[in-house]
Amino acid sequence: MTERLWAPWRMEYLDAPKGDGCVFCEIAATPPAKFREKLVLVAQEHAFVCLNRYPFAPGHLLVVPRRHTADFSGLALDEYDAWMRLSRDAVARLRAASVPEGVNLGVNLGRAAGAGIADHLHAHVVPRWSGDSNFMPVVADTRVMPEYLDVSWTRLAPFFADVAGQKA
Q: Label partner for 137 (CA 20 to 30 A): which of 73, 77, 80, 91?
């Protein structure tokens, strides 16, 4: 018999009211001097990489096309290519910086598929280690994060120094 573990805190986050405007469009308009504040590691013409403000693991990255679209078909081929190339670069740099045992790379298309921000396409790059999942989110409504976001940014930023694009 399969047991189920419930994590109702996740639905609370998904259903919570969001601010006006698109958070990714706001980040895309951020000047380089504010990149650290907005957790941006690198910004290119068609896409940018930032830390997820609500991470599942330390170093959880988001690779975001600048164009506001909810689906792949909303991107021109050059935009899609740039976004995918930057995703590949983000995985390589995350591996170098964090030395995870594995990496999840995923895109959630639509709210039902798990997209917390369904209107603006983005990819998640999540470092993983054996045994990194624990029971705390389920039984204690708490995520155990071993690293502050600013520490993650400081640790990861040098690994993006050679990626073409704007940096803080």
A: 91
Taking only the tens place, the pLDDT of each residue in 20-54 is 789 999 999 999 999 999 999 999 999 999 999 88
| pLDDT surpassing 80 at residue 15 | no
The Cα–Cα gap between 13 and 111 comes to 12
Distance of CA 50 to the CA centre of its chain: 6
| Neighbouring-strand partners of residue 64 | 48
Whether 122 is catalytic: yes
Strand segments, DSSP code E, in 8-158 are: 40-43, 47-51, 61-65, 102-106, 123-128
**Looking at 46, 60, 122, 124, which residue is catalytic?**
122
Span 129-163, pLDDT tens digits: 887 765 545 445 556 667 788 888 998 999 999 99
pTM over 0.85: no
Each domain of the chain, given as residue ranges in start order, spans 39-160
Write out the CATH class of domain 39-160: alpha beta
